[in-house]
Amino acid sequence: MIIVVKKESDESQLNSLVNWIKGLGLEVNVSRGENSVILGIVGDTSLVDADLIGSVGIVEKISRIQEPYKAANRKFHPEDTVINVGGNLIGGKNFQFIAGPCSVESEEQIIAVAKAVKAAGAAVLRGGAFKPRTSPYAFQGLRDAGIKLLLEAKKETGMPVITEIMSVEHLDLFEDVDVIQVGARNMQNFELLRELGRLRKPIFLKRGLANTVEEWLMSAEYIMSGGNTEVILCERGIRTFEPYTRNTLDLSAVPLVKEKTHLPVFVDPSHASGLSRLVSPLSLAAVGAGADGLIIEVHNDPERALCDGAQSIRPEKFAELVQKVDYMLPLVGKIRG
Ligand code: PEP
Ligand code: MN
């Protein structure tokens, strides 16, 4: 952390600032130039309130050199994190598909889609039971019954499953769920993140609709600081001024986040675009950007889907997409794990 002190400040003001910072357990290197004094702060500055220091009258400018996240930071953990989900490796050189309907709707639906996406090459089955809908009048998911049906599909196909949690109160229902999803709307539900940090189960953390990369990584940090290091990040599009797509896929976040952290990064082209015809091209672009996997909404009857039909692709399209991705993987040095 670097602090530039105003030219006109006197020695006693400077000394009290330096002593305050030293009192926080940090080292302070003072460099005196012709026009300003610069303080170099050395030590663990993750607990320092930079805004508070910046508000001190004699401080001209303050900037962080070190990122505020530690457990998620690649600087302190250079190797890629690889997570085992029911025998499927996620992260490192491995590329994986998670696929399934937006919501679990019935036993026939989830089992039919599970079989189809498994045959096409998906490693993990998705299916929402608790749905975060904008309207309270829209289909809210089958809730407990939805999780039971998803677990039926797991038994029937042997596929590990992922589903979204919306409240800590439902945690007991997730016992046999392999990966717990934190949806975009709950990315900064810090109490929920903290509870998930106490588990020893992979957490799929979607980026919030209007969150920066740093805020997203700080949310991963909430989970990891509790000891649960198995976090998978997912870029799912962010809010911009563009109305033709549901969100705007921020693909630059993929290589950027992979540089900053060691965690696997997935892309969700379904929620990013809201349009089934954009799912395949965005998926290929995500592979090119270095994603570790894709989460795709697949439905056997999108026209009659209870949620997100417009962005859901049919199983045949999903199978075609898997083939195209497989052609690309050698170019980005990945294998389908
Ligand atoms: C979902 O995956 O079904 C979902 C609701 O996603 P998001 O949180 O990204 O909107
Ligand atoms: Mn959806």
Reading the helices and strands in chain order gives EHEEHEEEEHEHEEHEHEHEHHEHE
In CATH, the architecture of the largest domain is: Alpha-Beta Barrel
What's the overall average pLDDT, rounded?
Answer: 96
Query: Briefly, what CATH class of the largest domain?
Result: Alpha Beta
Shape: elongated
Terminal CA distance reads 41 Å
Uncertain segments: none
Query: CATH H-level name of the largest domain... which superfamily?
Result: Aldolase class I
What this model shows, in words?
By secondary structure, the protein is an alpha/beta fold. The protein folds into two domains: 2-63, Phospho-2-dehydro-3-deoxyheptonate aldolase, domain 1 (Alpha-Beta Plaits, 2-Layer Sandwich), CATH 3.30.70; 83-336, Aldolase class I (TIM Barrel, Alpha-Beta Barrel). Helices cover 31% and strands 19% of the residues. It contains ten helices and 15 strands. The strands form three sheets. The chain has an eight-stranded parallel β-barrel, surrounded by five helices. The protein has a four-stranded antiparallel sheet with strand order 2-3-1-4. Strand 10, helix 5 (190-197) and strand 11 form a beta-alpha-beta unit. It is elongated, with a radius of gyration of 23 Å. The model has no long low-confidence stretch (mean pLDDT 96).
